[in-house]
Q: What sequence folds into this?
């Protein structure tokens, strides 16, 4: 019984700790699948269907968040001074994301194996 | 060569000549300048040169080459990793900053200073960093 109580406590602490990290990787993957991001960016988020699409896997999570928020700003018609990205395709997808979705999908992408580096 | 050709309309075209005509003359001059310098022709896309790119990274490395370096407007975020990024994407992103499709104070200024050849060279360099 004592062991059970301890396990429950440990589990609960683990869940709490994961929640405190804000982003949820599983939810992030669900966002990726819901919007079918892989249809353009590739299943591995490295090799997109067009050579002009970026490697997303392993990129800094906060940069990916910033990029998605900038697409939202562009799609909402904010002025250039607001730091925007005007792109019909990404704007249409980004505006379907909540702030939580953005945090989660960015964290999940950042956790994937990647060819990217700050310097090599 | 490039400078004298693109400056020519100012001296050679009278003030009463319409803007559209002036613009097409400027365009023609630019095309001539590019053609004359042998950088590219309409049918031949610019080809990136890794070694040439290596000579042009001084404006990039002050942010993109420093681990943990952050940009701060309007979000605070680590500047993206570009080593190993797709070559064509780097070109497309630089063009987007230069054209105003994307706006970012630093990247707007830097990309506007780059020629198509510079963009291609930098993209080739960063995409092939191993």
A:
């Amino acid at each position: 019984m004592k062991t059970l109580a301890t396990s429950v406590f440990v589990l609960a602490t683990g869940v709490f700790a994961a929640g405190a990290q804000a982003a949820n990787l599983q939810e992030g993957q669900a966002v990726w699948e819901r919007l079918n991001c892989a249809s353009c960016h590739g299943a591995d988020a490295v090799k997109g269907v067009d050579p002009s699409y970026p490697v997303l896997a392993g990129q800094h999570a906060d940069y990916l968040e910033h990029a998605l928020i900038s697409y939202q700003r562009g799609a909402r018609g904010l002025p250039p001074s607001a730091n925007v990205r005007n792109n019909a395709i990404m704007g249409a997808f980004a505006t379907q994301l909540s702030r939580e979705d953005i945090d989660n999908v960015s964290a999940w992408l950042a956790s994937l194996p990647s060819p990217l580096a700050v310097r090599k | 060569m490039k400078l004298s050709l693109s400056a020519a309309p100012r001296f050679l075209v009278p003030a009463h000549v319409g803007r559209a005509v002036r613009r097409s003359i400027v365009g023609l001059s630019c095309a001539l300048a590019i053609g004359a310098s042998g950088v590219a022709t309409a049918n031949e896309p610019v080809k990136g040169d890794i070694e040439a790119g290596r000579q042009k990274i001084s404006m990039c490395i002050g942010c993109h080459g420093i681990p943990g370096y952050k940009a701060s407007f309007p979000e605070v975020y680590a500047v993206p990793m570009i080593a190993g990024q797709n070559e064509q994407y780097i070109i497309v992103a630089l063009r987007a900053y230069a054209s105003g499709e994307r706006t970012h104070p630093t990247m707007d200024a830097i990309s506007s200073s780059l020629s198509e050849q510079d963009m291609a060279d930098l993209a080739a360099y960063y995409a092939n960093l191993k």
